[in-house]
Amino acid sequence: MNIRKEDLLLYAVTDRHWLAEGEPLSRPVRQALEGGATLIQLREKELDEAAFEQEALEMKELCREYRVPFIVNDNVELAVRVDADGVHVGQSDMEAGRVRELIGPDRILGVSAETVEDAIRAEKAGADYLGVGAVFPTGSKDDAADVSPETLKAICEAVRIPVVAIGGITYENAGKLEGSGIVGISVISAIFGQKDIREATERLKIRAAQLFSEV
Questions:
Q1: What are the percentages of helix, strand and coil residues in the chain, rounded to 5?
Q2: Has 112 been annotated as catalytic?
Q3: Does the active-site annotation cover 176?
Q4: Other Cβ atoms closer than 10 A to 16
Q5: How many CA atoms lie within 13 A of 175 on its CB side?
Q6: Per the residue annotation, which of 60, 100, 112, 180 is the catalytic one?
Q7: 5-48: per-residue pLDDT in tens?
Q8: Residue 153 annotated in active site
């Protein structure tokens, strides 16, 4: 499956932290898809492998229903096993070239990057897109962003593959990324942390289209 720029416009990353007790992840993900999320990444840090696999199978079917790419975070073997559309790995995870060997030529490979060097290396290793950040401070990190506006722009100019910005992005601050060269934004709480997930997704997608769809 080839990744298209428009698939990366509003990249939603799951986080069960926002779930009510007993609530299935499929409910907020469906609401995000109804609101226009263009890609879903399943990110799980706490589930055991069996539960993660079952959830991945459910999310894959849901994404197929809405015809958007389904990406698994980090777990390369599971992504292949459940026939996900692709996998996203960080710099501290498995080397991108090795991931490409394992997933084959037809699955999507996303790689995180914080520097121009990271970005160029990932592109050469077979990455289809880059997730660059954190571009703003996030609740889980200290007060400083990891990637400056200048570095973000330099990365976009250094590679031919599409780039999405990640980290601390909200409806209110997304405009600060205009002109950087990114094709979209990757968010968690700006969608799943909102009271009305569908409405929040709709508003954010309109905003992202205004800012980045001409790139």
A1: 45, 15, 40
A2: yes
A3: no
A4: 16
A5: 3
A6: 112
A7: 999 999 999 999 888 888 999 999 999 999 999 999 999 988 99
A8: no
